[in-house]
Every structure is written in structure tokens, then in C-alpha cells.
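In full, the data.
>
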Amino acid sequence: MIAKYSTYIIAGLTILLLSGCEKLLIDSGSSSEPVKNFDSLWQKVKDHYPYFSYKQVNWDDVYRQYRPKVNEGTSDAALFEVITAMLSELKDGHISVYTPDNYYAYNFKADAPANYDSSLIRKFYLQKPGVQSYQSGGFTYAVLANGIGYVHYRTFNRDVDSIDDILQLFEKEKVKGLILDVRNNGGGQISNVLSLVGRFTPARINIGYTVFKNGPEPDDLTEPLQVDVNPEGVTWARPVVVLTNRACFSACNIFTEIMRQLPSVTTLGDKTGGGGAMPLEYELPNGWRYRVSTSAFYGPDGFNVEGGVPPDIQVNMNQGHANQGIDDLIEQAGQRIENY
């Protein structure tokens, strides 16, 4: 049976996990023993990582591949290279390792087009004659020359309450629709995701499910916890186009999956960078810190967001157009709203 939780219970849980990054000490003492540290990290990942089956990674095989590279004479630098190479097998942007001398995080944006140029948008859209742009909290917004509302939200670590004043302004200006640009938004607080989504639904809706790893085997997962959202603040009923690129990650990735379920919303741009986990931070016996994904998020239709969310309409920026001051995503979003 699916356990049903209110928005606020889930929000509180996810705030604790995403922002608190609770540190769990593996060993009260310290140890520079390379084998002990390698085994400690490998075991912690085995016990808590929820995506082995989804990513088709056999963690025992990974151990057999990398464990022989470590012995009691392995230097710190060499140990760092081995464990980060091992963790790279998971291709997970939420996994990271911090040492006094090094830092590792998987590059989920590698080889993807940027599909975003803030200076182009500022110069050719927000500073265009007759257009007045504003800043409020994490939002940059304006009524564009074509009469469409534009909002860029740069991080889900910033409170979303000021969106109400923005939506009220757009209502007053009778804009045709809203372009909600979350390109280059690297995530943040899930509570802000739920709150922002609440502005675009007229009724309580199911937005997905969360599961947690609860045992050592790849498919040892909890029963899905249903996550719901209620309408909140000023609600918006006109067409919305959400702009995405590969740099949309974590909470932004989850936001994109939720928004694409709403009937008045179209997502446009590039596939997001993925990340559907609530990472927890741990410490190795030698004092190195690392983060590991410990949960998974699924859309209401069961779609696993970890690998990224594809857009409804795939659009990449054309460099020739960009050189002329044209953002292809904004232009096509405007056309979509005009034809809605």
C-alpha cells in the first residue's frame, strides 16, 4: 500500500535531508588506513544507494574491479583517485567527496550545449526599449516586448513568496502567458519546489513518489511515499512554458518533472541534468567527507527522474542566432504561447 503524506510532512522531511546534510560518523576515531577507508565507503554506498538496478550497476563487481588497486601503502592522492573513479561508475551528480586537498563531483553537464546566455537575455530582451525588468528574491522578471511575462528563477535555495507579486503584476498587465526560465538552476530546497508548483494548480494534486534505500540488496527499497501539493498563494491559470537546459539539476530537475504533468504547462529546451535523490553526508575514518544519494523520486506516472527529464519540445540555441541577439528558446516559447 502507498503511504500518503501531506505536502508539509514531506516538505519537512526533504528540508532536513537536502539542506541539513546530516553527518553520520562511521568511526569515532581517526584512521589513515587506505583499505579500511575504501571498504567503509564502498559498504556505505552499498547499504544506502537506491539506483543500482536503475543504472544497471553491480556494486559487488565494482568492488572486485577497484579493491585490488588499494593496499596499506596507498597514498592519500592515489586513494582519492581510486575511490572517485569507483564512484564515477554511478554517474550521479549528487555524489561528492571532500578532502583537505581535493574535491570530486560527477560532471552531469559534460558535452551538453549551454543553451543559456544571461548577458544575451539581459541586453536583447530585458533592456530592450520599452521593457522594464526587476529583481525580487531569486527572481528576475519583466513583461517582454511581445506582451508575454518572463521570469528567471536562478536557485531553489531562494524563497518563492515574491512570485505572488510578480503574478499579480502580470495579471494587471494582461500578459498572454508566462515564460518560466529555470535554465542553470542547480537545485536547492524541495520546500520551494512544492511552494512554487502550488501557484500553478487549482486543486490538490499528486506530484510523485519518494522511496528510500532500506537494506543491503539493490532492490531493498521502502514502499513509495506519495507526495501531494496544494494550491498556494496567487494561482496562475494562463499558459506557461518552462525553459530547461542540462544545468537544471536536483530540485530543479524534480520541479521540471512535476510541471510537465500540468495541463497548462509546456516544457521546452534541453533534457535536464538529472538528480532525484536526497543525499546524506558521511565521514570516512580518515576524516574525509562524502555525500551519497539515499532516496529516489518518481513522477506520478512512475517516471524515474534521476537520469534527467526530457522536454516536451526539444530546442537548442543556435550560435548564429545568438550572435544576432536571439535566444531560440525564448522565441519558440513566445510562439507557443501566442498559438496556445
